């Protein structure tokens, strides 16, 4: 992230291990949330393009339909399959956006303990625009913590 133009890391959660969702016959995932300070000229779509370029540089291969659809465009069997890296843009300040290439806040973040636990570690007062405090969203989820592991069905 330090190499991206107009982006400066501003904090990060620890790495959490998460049992697979959807396609369960695979290794556990490693999840982490980063806070980034972005230059005023950097748009959310510009940042997403940069994140997708990082994924590609690290060897991520996205099916054409998923790449064209942006977040959430892949069918479940592809979306939950093993991958080298998966960078999601969760929030961009308080911005709410519902475009063909990007939805902000991330449309499923409030349903995922593997997103909310590290987010709240990093930003305990985090608010999901349009949905409210992230800690309230997490309180509604069936999950449990075991050391650095997050269990959620």
Percent helix, as a range, is 25-40%
CATH architecture assignment: 2-Layer Sandwich
Number of domains: 1
Reading the helices and strands in chain order gives EEEEHHHEEHEEHEE
Round the Cα radius of gyration to an integer and report it.
Answer: 15 Å
Shape verdict: globular
CATH class, named Alpha Beta
Amino-to-carboxy terminus distance: 31 Å
Strand-residue fraction?
Answer: 15-25%
Largest sheet report: 4 strands, mixed
With strands numbered from the N-terminus, the spatial order across the biggest sheet is: 3-2-10-9
> How many alpha or pi helices?
5
- CATH topology tier name: Alpha-Beta Plaits
Number of strands: 10
- Uncertain spans: 65-70
Quickly give the structural class: alpha+beta
Please give a structural write-up.
The protein is of the alpha+beta class and 153 residues long. It has a single domain (7-152), classed as Alpha-Beta Plaits (2-Layer Sandwich), CATH 3.30.70.560. The protein contains five helices and ten strands; from the N terminus they run ββββαααββαββαββ. It has helices spanning 44-57, 64-69, 76-79, 113-122, 134-139; strands at 7-12, 16-18, 29-31, 34-38, 97-98, 103-104, 127-128, 132-133, 143-146, 149-152. The strands form four sheets. The protein has a four-stranded mixed sheet with strand order 3-2-10-9, covered by helices on one side. A two-stranded antiparallel ribbon has the order 1-4. A hairpin with a 4-residue loop joins strand 5 (97-98) and strand 6. The longest helix is centred in the N-terminal third of the chain and has 14 residues, at 44-57. The model is unreliable at 65-70 (pLDDT under 50).
């Amino acid at each position: 992230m330090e190499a991206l133009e107009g982006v400066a890391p501003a904090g990060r959660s620890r790495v959490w291990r998460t049992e697979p969702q959807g396609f369960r016959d695979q290794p556990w995932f490693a999840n982490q949330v980063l806070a980034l300070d972005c230059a005023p000229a950097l748009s959310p779509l510009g940042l997403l393009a940069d994140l997708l370029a990082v994924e590609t540089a690290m060897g991520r291969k996205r099916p054409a339909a998923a790449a064209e659809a942006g977040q959430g465009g892949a069918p479940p069997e592809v979306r939950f399959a093993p991958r080298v890296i998966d960078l999601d843009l969760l929030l961009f300040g308080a911005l709410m956006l519902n475009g063909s290439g990007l939805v902000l806040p991330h449309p499923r973040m409030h349903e995922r303990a593997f997103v909310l636990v590290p987010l709240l570690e990093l930003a305990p007062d985090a608010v999901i625009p349009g949905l409210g405090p992230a800690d309230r969203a997490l309180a509604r989820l069936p999950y449990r913590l075991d050391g650095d592991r997050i269990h959620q069905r």
